[in-house]
Amino acid sequence: MKQKKPRIYTVTMAKLLMDWRTSQGISRYEVTKSTGMNINTAKRLEEGEGGVTFEAGFRYFVYAESHKSKPNLMRKFREAMAFYQSEQEQANMVIAQQKQRRLENLRSDFERRKIENTTRQSVQMEMSEKLISLTTKHDAKTKELETELQEARDQIAAMQK
Question: Is residue 16 within 8 Å of 41, Cβ to Cβ?
Answer without folding.
Answer: no
